[in-house]
Amino acid sequence: MYCEKASGAGSAAGAVQEGLAPSIRWRAVRAVVWGLILVLTLCALTTHSNLIYRRYITAASLPSGAVFFFFLTVVLNGILKRVHAPWAMGKWELGIVFSMLFNSAAIPQASIGQTLVTLAVAPQYYPRRGGVPYAEQLGDAIPSWLLVQDREAVRAFYEGLAPGGSIPWSAWVVPMLGWTLFALALTAALGCLARILSHRWIEEERVTFPLMELPLEMMGAGSEVDRFWRNPLLWLGFLTPGTMIGVGQMHSYFPTIPEIGQILTWRIGEGWQTAPLNALRDFVFPVWMLVIGVSYLINGEVAASIWVFHLLYRVQLLAFALMGYNAAAPAGTTTFNPMDWIHHTEFGACVVLSVSMLLPVWSEVKKAWRREPDARVPRGAVLGFLWANGAMLVWAMLAGRNVLPVFLFLLVLYAIVLALGRMVASGGVYLVDNGYVPERLIHGLSGSLWQSNSGLWILNAQNALVGRADMSFLYFALNDEKFRHEARLPQRIHLAGVVLSVLAALFGAYFFILWWSYQYGAVNFAAWPLSWNVPQHLQRLMGDMASRQPPSGEVWSATLVGAGIGLFLLQMNRQFTWWRLSPLGFVIASSENVSGQIWGGAFIGWLLSSLVKRYGGMPVYRKLRPFFLGLILGDVVVYCTVVLLESLIGVRGAGF
């Protein structure tokens, strides 16, 4: 916490309560304008580096690109303080800039921007090589106002403009407006949901939000900012991943230099090629310095749950293989798929955890609805959540009378992102995904016999857009609530900045994606979203339409078993002090990102934190904290510097 005098967060918040004073208004405008400039710059770099070089600088729960541009802002602001102090931003202004960058950073990539653009054009182009486009095969299942109708605009998007051609902007106006209405309504609903949960999670349950510790320290909200930046342990931590990334880049240019990179991976199961051990042939031990840094900061129970449940997931695979159900066996060898069973059990636990998080705030929601003075949930957030969901259901009605499929999709999606949002808030999971996507779950639990072709399509399209739930806006909004609370940001200015940044990132993404697609041809891009994500969903849609299925007993049984496991883990964690394992790790145990990038670093971070606390106590733990913050800062700053240089010089180096 902190409190500035003339330009502090406390005085700014007070000015907002009574109406903005002229000096505060000027500072607010300056912060928001600078934030918008950075948001659009990051949007351009994100889109270019992703499409051309397959780099991902914002696809994370703590977007590297957002931290990088905030780092540059803090450095520039420090210089201004010494050169001409009146020009420098105050802490609350820096906080506004970070919130704008943080909330909008992931929007241009597959989480919304790239997939949303492709939904309007992929059905008109694929399948290729003489096949009939999916849009024609689907007939009137897809409303015409959600598709680009100009066939030449579709062809040029994927194959590039003819010499002398111009971008057909007008062909995109109606379909992009149609998809944008749904995307913005969903974003608003998730933002309101975060606001509803924030008081309980921050004030009552004291969730740690480890991903916000670095930006708060960077702007000086937790300590003296100069003391943080002058700490040698910070820079020692900074150099560790920075050197690894730098050497990895040099190796790509000069092969004689030893090969090293951002993530060190020991492929433990690579040599296990015979049954049953080949069920673990993709078993690796990943070491990512950034993950070690984050894992040092989090609650030990949550950190342990990440790696313990991942190892138990591996034990499950081996046990199924011993019973004759090998996940590594060729498709069609057996009717039972161990991975599907595991994913569905994780979803069952996910539902239990999500319900357990909603029940404690239900009474506060009712108080807010009744306008009771002691309500801790803002009534505007409750109304906003209802209005946003209502808008999505109206949109579903207009898009082929698909209210029930969209309602079910939203219900399942909220059940997933609530539990994963708590995992990000408590465990700082840098990359979170899941195998239990809403579309497949709805087909498994309710069957597809009752669904129209239009209903199947709407589920398929929404699943392509947000079904993987890896970059849900809820994760960013929840963390930003913690940041706003700790930094004491003026609420009206903060809300205006975040809304403007989300709009700028979304419409900026449209512009840059269309611009580069028409210049180079989307089929030529290195990244997968524009030429793989929606087409592979459409291919699966055709199979669903050709083969309708009743509800699956296997999906139901796995979900119920998972719910039982979730209840057991929840009760053990709540009732017994000796049970030192959070249930949260179970819902992401089989995640691809946890398997390939997270769990090893989470284990090392947990081990180091536990040893330091046990033998050095909290004073030593706090003293070493800057080193682990440096691991995070060094990774994101050096990696983004490399990506920026690549885009400027036109050569891709190493790294993932």
Detailed description of the structure:
The chain has about 650 residues and is mostly helical. The chain has one domain (about 115-125, about 130-135, about 135-650). About 65% of the residues lie in helices and about 0% in strands. The protein has 25 helices and 2 strands. Mean pLDDT is about 90; it is low at about 1-10.
Whole-number tally of structural domains: 1
Computed Rg:
25 Å
Overall SS class: mainly alpha
E-strand count: 2
- Mean pLDDT value: 90
Tally of helical segments: 25
How much helix, percentage-wise, in residues? 55-70%
Shape: globular
> How many angstroms does the end-to-end distance come to?
37 Å
Order of helices and strands: HHHHHHHHHHHHEEHHHHHHHHHHHHH
Q: Give a short account of the largest sheet.
A: 2 strands, antiparallel
Beta-strand content bin: under 5%
Spell out the blueprint of helices and strands:
Layout: H1 9-18, H2 22-53, H3 64-83, H4 91-104, H5 113-119, H6 122-125, H7 134-138, H8 151-159, H9 173-204, H10 213-218, H11 225-229, H12 232-253, E1 263-266, E2 285-288, H13 289-297, H14 300-322, H15 338-369, H16 379-398, H17 403-427, H18 438-446, H19 453-467, H20 473-487, H21 491-520, H22 529-546, H23 553-575, H24 592-615, H25 617-649
